Amino acid sequence: MTAERYQKLPGRRRGLIRGASLWLGSGYLLSVKSMRFREDYKRFYFRDVQAIAVARAPRFHISTRSIFFATLWLIAFGISSAAAPQFRAALWVVAAALVIAWIVISAFFSCRCRIYTAVSREELPSIYRVWTARKFLDRLTPHIAQVQGAVDPNWAEQARDIEPGQPSPLAGAAANSLHSDARVHTVAADVLIATLFLSGVADLLLLRSNAALATQQQLVSALALIVEAVFLFLQYQRGILRAPMRNLAIATMFSVGAMYYVKQMMFSFYQGIQQGAGKSVKIPFFLSGSALTRGIDAGICIILGLVGLGIIFLDKDRRSPSDLNL
Amino acid sequence: MPLPCARCQTPLPKWELTSGDRAICTNCGSENTVRVFPALFAAETAARPEAAAEGEAACFDHPGKRAVGACRQCGRFVCDLCAVQFDGETWCPSCVAAGSGQARAANTEITRTLYDSVAVTIPLASFIFWPMTILTGPATVVYALMKWRQPLSLVRRSRWRFIVAMLIGLAELGGWIWGILYYIARGRMATP
Question: Which one is the CATH code of B47-106: 3.30.450, 1.10.150, 3.30.40, 2.30.30?
Answer without folding.
Answer: 3.30.40
